[in-house]
Amino acid sequence: MSIKRTLPTSTISGFTLSAVLILTFLKILLENLPSSIHRAGDELLKLNTQEGVANAVTTVVVYFRGFDTLGEIAVLFIASLGIGLMLSENSQCEIKAESNFMLKTASTLLFPIITLYGVYVMIYGHLSPGGGFQGGVIIASAVLLLLISHKDFEVPHSVIVLLETLAGVSYVLIGLIGLFTLDIFLGNFLPHDVAQMGMLVSGGIIPIIYIIVGVKVGSEMSMIVQNLIKRGENV
Amino acid sequence: MIGFIILFTFISIITVAFFSIIQKKEADSIILFMGVGLGSVILFFVFSAPDVALTEAVIGAGISSLIFLMALKHLKATA
After folding, report:
1. Is A138 in Cβ contact with B74 (below 8 Å)?
2. Is A140 part of a structural domain of the chain?
3. Is A27 a member of any domain?
4. What is the torsional sign of CA A183, A187, A190, A196?
5. Domain extent for A107
6. Cα separation of A152 and A40, whole Å?
7. A183/chain B closest Cα distance in angstroms
8. Strand, coil or helix: what is A189?
C-alpha cells in the first residue's frame, strides 16, 4: 500500500488563497490596534508571589487553573482507554527480530538514568522549568526504550492500574480537602510562606499535586506505548 | 546574532515542513516531521519559554513520532 503524494493544483491554489486571506486579516488587525493593551499575564504574575512558588507557569497550571489540569488528565486517560479498547482483541504478538546485545546492555544502563531525570523534572517542577506532564512523559520514554530492546519485558498491568487509580483519587481528595477547609476547590491548605520561595519544600500543595500529575501521566503514557508495541499486530 | 539564529531556524522549519509534505515514503515524512519539532524546540527556548521547549522536545520530537511510526506499522500489517 503506497499513497502517491504529488501536490495537485487545487492544493497549491488553496494554500495561496489562505495565505492571502491570513495576510489581509493581519493587516486589518494591525491597523485597528488599540492604544494600550491590558494583558492577563501581568496580573497573574503579581498574584504569583502570594503562593510562594518560584515558577510562575506552575502556579498558573496547578493553582489558578488546577481544575482544568484535572480535565486534561481525564482527556489523557480517555485516550489511553481508547487505544487499549481498540487493540485488545489480539493477545500477545511475537516480535520476530532479536535485538543486539549492545542495544540490550545500553538500554539497561540508560533506563535508571532517564528515570532519575524524569523524577527530578517532576519534583523540581515548582522551581525550574518542567513539571508533572514533562516528567511523566520522560519516564514513559524510558519504559519505551526497554520495551523495544527487550523482547519479553512488559510492565505488569496491575502496577499501572494501581498507580493510575491512586494518583487520580488523591488529586480529587486533595481538592476536596481544600474545599472543606478553605471553601475553594484545590485551596492551598498547607503552609506556604513567601519567605521560603525557592526552597525544595515550599509552595504548600502545589509540588504535591504536580508529582501526582507526573505519576498519572507516566503510567498512562507507558500503557499507550506498551499497547501499541506489544499488541494488535494483525488488527 | 540572536536574530540571525531565529531567522535561520524559521527558514529551516519551513523548508523541512515542505519536504515533509512532498515525500513519497510515509516513514521519511514522519522523520522529517521530527525535524520540525526539533526546530520549534530551539525557537521556544530562544523566546524564553523553557517549559514549552521541554514539553515539545519530549512529546513533539519523541513520543508522538513513535506513535505515528507504530500506527504506520499497523497500517502496513493490515494492507
Report:
1. no
2. yes
3. no
4. negative
5. 53-230
6. 51
7. 31
8. coil
Which runs of consecutive H residues, i.e. helices, occur in A87-131?
A: 101-123
d(CA A2, CA B22): 14
Distance from CA of A36 to the nearest CA of B (A): 23
The answer, for A138 touching chain B at a CB cutoff of 8 Å, is: yes
* Residues within 8 A of B (CB atoms), A 183-222 only: 221
With CA atoms as reference, report the closest residue to A208 among A47, A99, A66.
A66
Question: Which residue is associated with the grid cell 520476530?
Answer: A96
Residue A141 contacts B, CB cutoff 8 Å: yes
Question: Which three cell numbers, joined as nine digits, stand for A112?
Answer: 535508571
Does pTM surpass 0.80? no
Rounded to an integer, what distance in angstroms lies between the CA atom of residue A166 and that of residue A168? 6
**Interface pTM, i.e. ipTM:** 0.77
Q: Which three cell numbers stand for residue A114?
A: 532517564
- How many Cβ pairs within 8 Å bridge chains A and B? 59
Question: CB under 8 Å to B74, separation ≥6 — which residues?
Answer: A228, A232, A233, A235
- For each of chain B's 79 residues, which pLDDT tens digit applies? 888 888 999 999 999 999 999 988 888 999 999 999 999 999 999 988 888 898 888 888 788 888 888 888 878 777 6
Q: Identify the CA nearest to B69 among candidates B7, B9, B38, B25.
A: B25
In chain A, how many domains are there? Answer: 1
